[in-house]
Structure formats: C-alpha cells, structure tokens
Amino acid sequence: MQTSIVIAGFGGQGVLFAGQLLAHAALDARKHVTWIPSYGPEMRGGTAHCTVIISDRPVGSPLARHPEIVLAMNQPSAVKYAPLIGLGGLLVVNTSLAEIPATRPDVRLIPVAANEVAEAAGDLRLANVVLLGALLATRPILPAPVVEKALERYLPERHRHLLDANRAAFRAGYASQDEQTRLAA
Amino acid sequence: MPPVLERPIENQTNNGSPVLEPVYCFPDSLRDVHTHYCPGCTHGTIHRLVAEVIDELGIRERTLMVAPVGCAVFAYEYFNLDSCEAAHGRAPAMATGLKRVLPDQIVFTYQGDGDLASIGTNEIIHAAARGEKITVIFVNNAVYGMTGGQMAPTSLPGQVTSSSPAGRNPAIQGHPIHIPEMLAGMPGVAYAVRRSVHSVAEIRKTKKAIRQAFQTQLDGLGLSIVEILSSCPTNWRMDPAGALDFIRDQMVPVFPLGDFKVIG
Amino acid sequence: MTIKLWKGNEAIAEAAVRAGADAYFGYPITPQTELLEYLSSRMPALGRVFLQAESEIGAIHMVYGAASAGKRAFTTSSSPGISLMQEGLSYIAASEVPCVLVDIMRGGPGLGNIQPSQADYFQMTRSAGHGDYHPLVLAPATVQEAVDLMSISFDLAFLYRHLVVLLADGILGQMMEPVEMPPLRTLEDQMPGWALTGAVGRPPRNITSLYLGAEQLEGLNLRLQAKLAQIAAYEQRWESYRTDDAEQLIVAFGTVGRIARSAVDQAREQGQRVGLFRPISLWPFPAQPLAQLSRHVDSILVVEMNAGQMREDVERIVGGPVHFLGRMGGMIPTPEEIVEALPMKPKAQVHRNGSNGAAPVKRIKERSYAPSA
Ligand SMILES: Cc1ncc(C[n+]2csc(CCOP(=O)(O)OP(=O)(O)O)c2C)c(N)n1
C-alpha cells in the first residue's frame, strides 16, 4: 500500500506544516514516509505545496505525478491539481477560498468550508488542520488519534498556545465529514 | 502598483476639452510590469528613483545595467534598459568590461550588500582603484534577502538573523562594513555617499544623489557610488511601516547618512 | 535508538556534528542554506567553530586552513558555489589535507535555478579543480543514506588525507524522511603527525602545493595516483535492486536512483524483468560489479538529471552504447517516464504491436558488453 498526498495553497496557510504533521503521524504509525516541499524565494506570498508519500515499503520517488489525494486550500491549487489526481482519487477542497472545480467522475470530491469551520473552532488560521480532519474522516489513511497525538508532539514551540484550538479544528474537520460519511454508508 | 496615468500623446485635444498636464508618469526606463518584491520592500522605490533619473538625464538609450545576484536578480525585467546579469558579486567586473569597450555608454551596477560587500568586495575595490567610470547603486538592507535573511556584512551588531541566531557579535562575526567611507579614500572614486529611503524627505535626497552619481559618470570623473539604506520587512519579520522605523532608528545610527566624497 | 523525521539538509549537518566536525565555513546558497543555518547555532553550542565566509572562495580557503591544523573541517554549497571553490579544492587535494565537501546540486549552467539537478557529476568526479586527481565522491539516495555516508566521510578524508564529496541534490536537501541518527562521537584529541600546531620541540612542518622542480611535482603526482588507485580498490560502493533475474537494467544514482526504484517496481508489476544498479560511490565508480551485471542483461537504460554525464562512464564500462533518459534544468524524471523509456516493452504490448519491441532487443544484443578491465 502506498498513498501520495499533495497539499497546496497560499504561502502562510500552513500547507507545509499540514504535510509535516501527516508525515510525523505516519512515522508514529510505523509507516515509511517522505515529505517534500516546493522551495525557494518564489514561495514568499506566492503559492506553496508539499507532497507526502506514505507507504508500507521504502519510498522510491518522493514526488507523484498523479497523487491519490489532493488538499486544495485555495482556488489556484484546486484548478491546478484537480485534473492531476490519480484514478479513483480524492480531492478535498477549501470552498471558503475556492470554487468547486470540475472533476472526473472517478474522483471523489469533498468540499469543506474550512475557513469558516476553523474560525468557529477558534482560529481562522487552522483551516489546514480542518482539511486534514475532513480527509481522515473520509479516507482513513492513518488513524485519527495518531494524527491528534502528532499534533501534541510536533506543534512548534511558538504555536504551543494554539494546541487546544488545533485539536478542536482537527475534530471539527473530522466531524464535518463524519456525519455525511455515515449517512452515505 | 502605484496608479498610472497615461502620458498624453498630444498637448492638444481635437474636441476642445481642456489639455491635461501630466503630474505623474510612469518612467520610460521602467517596464509596466508587476515585480516579485515582497510587500513593503523598498527595492521598488529605488528602481523607480534610478529610472526617473535616467529619464530626466535623457540617457535611457545609452544606459546599460548590470543586475546582481540577490533579490534584485530580476531587475533586468523591470528596467526598460539594455542590461545583463552578473555572477554573484562580479557586477563591477562585468561593468568594467562593458564600459571599457563602450566608453561612451553609461554603465551602472545595482547590487545588494551581500553581493557587493561580501562576495564581491574584491571586484568593487578594484573597480574603484582603477577609477572605472561606472555608477554603483548599492542597496543595503542589512541581510541576505533572497536566500532567506542570513547575516550580511552590513548586519547590525546584535542583529538576529537566520545565520546569526544569537545576534551578530562583532567579536566573532566582525563589524558592519562601511563601503562609501572605505571607497572615499581611493583616488579613483569621484562620488561616494550614503542615503536612505525611509521617509519622503530622504527619498527626495536619495534621488538627488543618484542624479549626481550619474552626472559624475557623464562628466567622466571616476567611479560613483550611492549606498541606500533599504528595508526588508520579510526577513526582519516586521510590518512595512515598522521596517522603515527600523532604518531610521537602528540603521542610520550605524550607517550615518552623508557625503564622503564629492568631486565636481 | 529513535527514528525521527529529519529534513535532508539539517540531517546532513547534524550527522557532520556527530561525526566530530570541528569547524564549518560556508556561504548561503539555495537549496543548501539550511545546512549553514542549522550549524550557525549547533556548532557554537558545542564550542565548535562556525563562520559565515564572505564567499565560497573564502569558505574553501578557510577550510584549507583549518584542515591544515589537523581539524575536521568542512563546507557545503550548491553548484555555482562549488564552481567558485574549485581553486581551493585543487590546493587541498595537492596538499593532501583531509576535507569534506557537501554539494546539494541545483540546475545549471550559470545562475540556472534552485531546482534539483545532477549536472555536477563531471564537476565533482572529473574536474574538481585543475590538476590530476579525483575526489572521493559519494552519492546518497535517501536522507538516511546521506547521514550514514556523512558519518564516515571525515574518517575517509583522514584515512586517505583526501577530499571527500557528498553529492546530493535539492530534493534530498529539502525533503524530510525518517532517520536514525548515529550517536554523538567523542573523538580523542587526535593530532595527526602532519598537522600545523606550532613547531614546539620539533622541526617545522609545511603544508604546500608548490613543487617548483618538475621531478618533485611528478613525484607528488605519482604519490597522488598511487593513493587514488588504493581508493579505487577499496572504496567502491553500490546497490543492486531486483537484478537477479533482470533482462533490463536501469543505472541511476542519487535521487534518480530512488525514483528508478519505483520504476523497477512498476515495470515488474507489468511483468517486465527489470533491475536497478545504483552506484553510491561515483568516484571510484563501481565498474566491476556493473560490468558483471551487464553480461546478464539484454539492455541498459541510464537515467540522470543531466545530459548524460554518468552515461559516459557506463558506456565505457559495458563497452558499448546504452539507452538514456535525461531531464535537465530542474525537471525530475517520474517513475512512469522511466518505465516508458525502457527499451523492451512488456510482453503483452510486443504481441499487440507486432514488429515494435523486438528491434531494440536485437540492437542491444549486438553490443559488446565486454568490460574494459
Ligand atoms: C556563487 C554563489 N553563491 C551564493 C549564491 C546564492 N545567493 C543568491 S542571492 C544571495 C544573497 C544576496 O544578498 P544581497 O546582496 O544582500 O541582496 P538582497 O537579496 O538582500 O537584495 C546569495 C548568497 C549564488 N547565487 N552564487
């Protein structure tokens, strides 16, 4: 089993951190994992993305031309990545900042008003964690408790005071899909 | 982007409506494009001053620019001039080559503090020693902007940067380099001054100095250099207004504004 | 032992610290700047030397000085900075002082860009400065391997009193992967018998690369060549992956080596018998093992992020032309692209396309794979 995830958005939306969180959680779940960011000066104020590969075997390519899962945090990312998603893939899109893009019928679409959910949970800046919650509720690539635990362990020191808000945002994101998933089942 | 008024093509209008006097025009020497500079960065201001001076002196078509490696690496996409891109720190050498084969053209370099005062000290000092008739626009923002805010040779004592996490300690990392003061002692240098762009008044003074620096080259007097204290809100981790205050309150005391050499 | 996620650049820096690095000199350049930034707090915290040099020329000559004092000194940079260091590298090799250099390659030539590349293969294996020598060049494919190789690089540098290069690229520098760090080594205050320490109670020592007499300079060169022959004999490293029954062989190093690993798995899923040969030491190149493998396969595909620099070595070793896939300028080959570039198509496809697919096999078979040795 190998899963490739691309998380994309504006610089400052916590795209890279969301990916690192998944990577840490994957390691804690004893998986093979790689994380790689877009890097360089063009990042500032521009768009940022990272790729996370979670696998049962050693990871070869740390990049994926057709990722199975895309978390699009803004409009340009949704437009760019929707067509690139692999067969039977999943697109989690932040509808607070992006219109729902046209997707192929095989792609599962999860719209989340992540900014609003994050704000309700305590902090607008936690839309990234909301999307992660929504993702794990829809496709449990890792157990949600492991990701929550990773949040506790790896939230950078300077954001420690936001731990509770992060947890709340993660759970709110999870709950936003939970109901629908259960309904669909 | 500042509001841009189109330059009226004719002073007359056919339909008898009043003639508009241009009060603000986009300089010919700049291209009307978006730059990649961060919000609050004063590279843009300095670009504009240089472009206005070139326009006013009427030398756009005979001016050649040498761009640096640093945040201004794409300056050649913003200036509407013939230009080239030097290796890191080597702009004065490249400018020397240009000027020596095209002595009637106006050649200037646009360099950051890492570029000019660190990796390129050799090149600037020897261009000055030879009295190359070039103009140097030296933008001092006290950090390596492009690579993410590492310590520069002009970082202030105590300044925390991503490669001086404990603050620059002069006993270990040395003292800030004062380039125009140093160059002023060299016979080949005709004009060496320091200015700043932290306020409208200082911006005006900076423009005058840039104008005089180019005039020095036009008069064939020797190398001219204007050091300009410039802001880097991103890497200083400040808002744009705070960054301008930082120049005024922290940088100016270390880098006094003034004329260190004026010939002609 | 704990396994933690590390960013490549920071992991390499920490591995150098743990391997007992005494002094670091460097200059910022993307995509390796995190090395410098990490060491700017880590080295002083341990009472070791960190200095940001005024340029890469400055940095390499500072390393030359510190290494002459018998210290474990190193520097790091990326392609354009390495170009600047060439002068110092040559002096270091000639003076036979130990030195470790990390090159996190980026796209060139010129200022190029900051995206990953492998276009310094020649620069490092062939022309790391003027004169007759090769550095020992090690090319990791994972962050763990980068850490493991960094951990032994000072030992190798001191063992041979030679230049050791860790050659990686922007992907490896920027990516995060699980790493098991070796423990922090406490080194005896070793003072090699050649180090400049002050001629207290002994005749003065001299470290130089100047030999005005032609005979003397030839003597130095013969000594260097003998040393290189020894390195070539003992320091070849490589990895073979699923080569046992392979009909087609991919040869790739560093990051492309790991991408090719994915390609091997994909091709095998499609029923193709593909294997991977990944040189880890690029100089000395593991010629013998490759030559041996080449006798058992029908085709060889070299994949690189350059225009075919390692291909020249591979062709020399297998004694004939090979297939090649190269991406440049920061473009990264994908596993799918590599599978597509395999000269022999899956059986099913050959049947469907009739004529297509057989031709490359025949062409390959005509080749001589007789090793040069
Ligand atoms: C030989 C070489 N070394 C390092 C670099 C990486 N580099 C690019 S810009 C830069 C620093 C520029 O700083 P500065 O001159 O202060 O200009 P700023 O970006 O602050 O405007 C460095 C070190 C390079 N391009 N070439």
Description:
The complex is a heterotrimer of chains A (185), B (264) and C (373). With 185 residues, chain A is an alpha/beta fold. Chain A is built from six helices and six strands; from the N terminus they run βαβββαββαααα. In chain A, 51% of the residues are buried. Chain B is α/β, with parallel strands linked by helices. Chain B has one domain (28-262): Thiamin diphosphate (ThDP)-binding fold, Pyr/PP domains (Rossmann fold). Chain B has helices spanning 43-57, 75-78, 91-101, 113-119, 121-129, 170-173, 179-184, 200-218, 233-236, 240-254; strands at residues 63-67, 82-85, 106-112, 135-140, 143-144, 150-151, 189-196, 223-229, 258-262. In chain B, the strands form two sheets. Chain B has a seven-stranded mixed beta sheet, sandwiched between helices. In chain B, strands 5-6 form a two-stranded antiparallel ribbon. Residues 1-10 of chain B have low confidence and may be disordered. With 373 residues, chain C is an alpha/beta fold. Chain C has two domains: 3-186 and 207-234, Rossmann fold, CATH 3.40.50.970; 239-351, Rossmann fold (3-Layer(aba) Sandwich), CATH 3.40.50.920. Chain C is 43% helix and 18% strand. Chain C has helices at 8-18, 33-45, 56-68, 79-95, 121-125, 143-160, 170-174, 214-234, 254-269, 287-294, 309-318, 335-341, 347-353, 358-366; strands at 3-7, 23-26, 49-52, 73-77, 99-105, 136-138, 163-169, 176-180, 238-241, 248-251, 274-279, 281-283, 299-304, 323-326. Residues 349-373 of chain C have low confidence and may be disordered. Chains A and B meet through loops of A and loops of B. Thiamine diphosphate sits between chains B (69-72, 88, 112-115, 141, 143-147, 152) and C (27-29, 56, 80-81, 84, 111).
Short description:
The complex is a heterotrimer of chains A (185), B (264) and C (373). Chain A is of the alpha/beta class and 185 residues long.
Defining key terms:
heterotrimer; B: 264 residues; alpha/beta; Rossmann fold; 9 strands; globular; C: 373 residues; 14 helices; 14 strands
Q: What is the mean pLDDT of chain C?
A: 91
**Could you give the order of the helices and strands of chain A?**
EHEEEHEEHHHH
Q: Which regions of chain A have little confidence, pLDDT < 50, spanning 5+ residues?
A: none
Please give the CATH architecture of the largest domain in chain C: 3-Layer(aba) Sandwich
The spatial strand order of the largest sheet of chain C comes to 3-2-4-5-7-6-12
Report how far the terminal alpha carbons of chain C are from each other: 43 Å
Q: What percentage of residues of chain A falls in helices of 4 or more residues?
A: 40-55%
The Cα radius of gyration of chain C reads: 22 Å
Structural class by secondary-structure content of chain C: alpha/beta
Amount of beta strand of chain C: 15-25%
Tally of extended strands of chain A? Answer: 6
Q: From the helix content, strand content and strand pairing of chain A, which structural class follows?
A: alpha/beta
Domains counted in the coordinates of chain C: how many? 2
Distance between the termini of chain A: 24 Å
CATH names the topology of chain A as Pyruvate-ferredoxin Oxidoreductase, domain 3
